[in-house]
Write a structure and sequence with these properties.
Elements lengths: L5 E2 L3 H6 L3 E5 L2 E6 L3 H10 L2 E4 L4 E6 L3 H8 L12 E7 L5 E11 L2 E6 L4 H12 L5 E4 L5 E6 L3 H9 L11 E6 L2 E6 L8 E6 L1 H13 L3 E3 L1 H10 L34 H10 L3 E8 L10 E4 L2 E11 L6 E8 L8 E6 L2 E8 L11
Parallel strand pairs: 1-3, 4-14
Antiparallel strand pairs: 2-3, 4-10, 5-8, 5-9, 6-7, 7-8, 10-13, 11-12, 12-13, 15-18, 15-20, 16-17, 16-19, 17-18, 19-20
Length: 364
């Protein structure tokens, strides 16, 4: 099993830095370097860099690229300017989630889709199957790209000073292509931390060069451990926890990304029905009293009855509170509902709160 893990283009750098490595989505990935708390705080207060080369990239090109992307994506890319990025989901006919992803609009005949590492093979097969009958070509470009995410309040200054890329004028959720050493690289103002930052896609050689420049400049390398604590604090979902093939975007409390006023798309009828009739369960936040830490899979109880389950839980590094996201049955999803979380043989009191435990600090 272990020898089948895919190594990113930065793998040797992580090993040399003494990173704790672990399997994630079929890749051998760094979990932490100095420690999760230190790396988390570097991103919240200064700047950190992540190897996210495990993410998948799919290019859709052709006369009907727009029509096809609209057909598989719940968000609405209609009339968007070139260079804009959209977050949303691809869904099955029953509304369950194939994956959540970013869609980069190059132009009306070309889109760049960024998908989750653990879902690459499944997603690519599903996208290609559904592209039949559309005048467009789907290319899995995942093996071609390396990717780093530079995140934190000092990200803009760091990218400009250390990498020499003029990114100040890139608006939030937009991207630009830069030519460096005769190669085209994509730089987007996006991330998964709740802080300002950039994601850079380029050849393996270019991404290695970028990483080395950032290390030489003293930027903190960050692992998947704090990537999870950072995204969780600002209420961002993780596929497999808050989204899955049996969890719809409506149940995940992400209905703002589902645009029912656009033309037909896969899963539209099921999602429209859920929006109209309401759902039987949804993802909410829970705050516990005291210091007990809720974990994925722990039961949430009201009056001794199980009414929900923890999807992600931590002692929040930024706030010091024990908090969790949980899938809760109605009507126990209402703000202020008093609950208990079962942690091994004990139960701990808590209440339902908003699932954003820390405010995002994106560039306006």
């Amino acid at each position: 099993m272990e020898e089948n893990l895919i190594k990113t283009c930065l793998h040797d750098r992580h090993v040399k830095l003494g990173a704790l490595m672990s399997p994630f989505g079929g890749f051998d990935m760094p979990i932490q370097y100095k420690g999760i708390t230190e790396e988390h705080n570097a991103v919240r207060h200064e700047v950190g860099v992540f190897d996210v080369s495990h993410m998948g990239e799919v290019r859709v090109k052709g006369p009907e690229a727009y029509k096809f992307v609209s057909h598989i994506f719940v968000n609405d890319v209609t009339g968007a300017p070139d260079g804009q990025i959209f977050y949303g989901m691809m869904c099955y006919e029953n509304g369950g989630t194939v994956d959540d992803l970013l869609v980069y609009k190059v132009n009306d005949e070309e889109y760049f889709l960024v998908i989750n590492a653990a879902n690459i093979d499944k997603d690519v097969a599903w996208i290609k199957k559904n592209a039949e009958g559309f005048d467009c070509v789907v290319e899995d470009e995942s093996p071609k790209y390396g990717e780093v995410a530079i995140q934190g309040p000092k990200a803009e200054e760091t990218v400009e000073r250390v990498l020499g890329l003029a990114v100040k004028d890139i608006p939030f959720y937009n991207f630009k292509t830069f030519e460096v050493d005769g190669e085209e690289n994509i730089v987007s103002r996006t991330g998964y931390t709740g802080e300002d930052g950039f994601e850079i896609y380029g050849s393996h050689d270019y991404i290695r060069k970028v990483w080395d420049l950032l290390m030489d400049a003293g930027v903190q390398p960050c692992g998947l451990g704090c990537r999870d604590t950072l995204r969780f604090e600002v209420g961002l979902p993780l596929y497999g926890d808050e989204l899955a093939d049996d969890i719809t975007p409506i149940e995940a409390s992400l209905s703002m990304f589902v645009k029912l006023d656009k033309p037909e798309f896969i899963g539209k009828d099921a999602l429209a029905k859920q929006k109209a009739e309401g759902v039987k369960r949804r993802i909410v936040g829970i705050e516990l009293e005291g210091t007990a830490v809720p974990r994925h899979g722990y039961a949430v109880l009201v009056g001794g009855q199980k009414v929900g389950e923890i999807t992600t839980g931590y002692k929040s590094i930024s706030t010091g509170k024990s908090v969790a996201m949980a899938m809760m049955d109605k009507p126990y999803d209402k703000l202020g509902t008093e609950v208990e979380v079962q942690i091994r043989k004990k139960t701990f009191p808590g209440k339902v709160v908003k699932k954003r435990f820390y405010d995002k600090n994106y560039k306006k």
